[in-house]
Design brief:
The protein has 75 residues and is of the alpha+beta class. 59% of the residues lie in helices and 21% in strands. It has helices at 2-12, 17-38, 64-74; strands at 42-49, 52-59.
């Protein structure tokens, strides 16, 4: 996560404390989302709204404790 956020901050050339925190949060969200996709717990859904398409995530399990336990075991 740190390498990804450092790379992004280097390209944007923003090194303030706020920028660093924002980028770390963003990378954390991306890594968590990718992990859940790889475990088969989240599936992306393409929806058409008006003339545009959006991507949304659908969580396949409604009990968050199951997801948390699975992540703890695998990470």
């Amino acid at each position: 996560m740190v390498v990804s956020s450092t790379s992004l901050m280097g390209r944007l050339n923003k090194w303030t404390e706020g920028a660093v925190r924002t980028e770390l949060r963003q990378v954390h969200v991306e890594v968590e989302e990718e992990t859940l996709k790889n475990l088969g717990l989240v599936t992306p859904i393409k929806k058409k709204i008006g003339r545009y398409y959006t991507l949304e995530s659908q969580i396949l399990l409604s009990d968050q404790s199951i997801v948390s336990a699975e992540l703890r075991k695998r990470l």
